[in-house]
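Give me structure tokens for this 350-residue protein.
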Amino acid sequence: MNGGRGVHMTKVLVTGGAGFIGGNFIHHMIEKYPSYKIYNLDSLTYAGDLIKHEKFQSYSNYTFCKLDINDRKAVTELFFKEQFDFVVHFAAESHVDRSILDPGIFVQTNVLGTQILLEAAKAVSVQKFVHVSTDEVYGDLPFEPNLYFTEETPLQPNSPYSASKASSDLMVRAYHETYQLPVNITRCSNNYGPYHFPEKLIPLAITRVMEGQKVPVYGAGSNIRDWLHVQDHCAAVDLVLHEGAAGEVYNIGGHNEKSNLEVVKTIINMLGSNNDLIEFVEDRLGHDRRYAIDPSKIEALGWKPRHSFESGIAETIQWYQQNQLWWQRILSGEYRQYFERQYSFDQVNG
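Here you go.
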């Protein structure tokens, strides 16, 4: 798996690589492209976890960089030092509930941080900048058959989180239109799968049910999301990175619309428990009713999701059963002490 020496290696910077989707993308890229040099840039906020990358620490084609994308000077120096070929930008504050409580950090990281990365990418003439966004920028979709988000759907974000992502999308577009920076924007539906931080619905439900605890469900649980397995999402981003037309937006969806209540009941049933564990709680402010994506444009590039929801959720539950130490470390907070002991973050590590 180690890269060769003395030959130029394609350099790919993955921001937010200690997070859920970015972390899975790093696994995907290292396994698929052993001749690529993968850089994992992350500031290690509360949701950052490096335990999942432990096996890569000895690989010559993997480098971790502890760096905040809001640090303009450090970002610029890193880009000029390494001369990246590709940037895949996952780094973002992403939890809607947290954005309602503290919108400012979402504007700082998701908007200003993205602009800092774009400016550095422009300065060193990267070959492609892929900005990973969300279907939440489109807002609320009515419960109507055959009505889906497309790439032409107007942006109508309803939470501080989605507003910050919509703003960063527009900044990425502006850098393409004004400076001809080769960019793509991807907008995905709700992801699930391995290494999902247990504050989100599916890992929260799985871990709560496994421990016999109540599972909170907002409102009546009728809000609908289109669920996408993270490995399918990674394959789609990989395709856009290599085959996407510069300047284009690609929606990535899983063809798996489920209500939140249906998702929780499925997990409870698969784990052999009962619905008494469901606890309905006060609905979230500005809670969008439905998200659903028409992925025809990326399917025309040759992508199809490999997982149905049924197979994907069964695989995910099994992963959490087999990796209890990982999520127990997350829930206890031990994971932060663990990787602070294991790694030195004073400089770029190879």
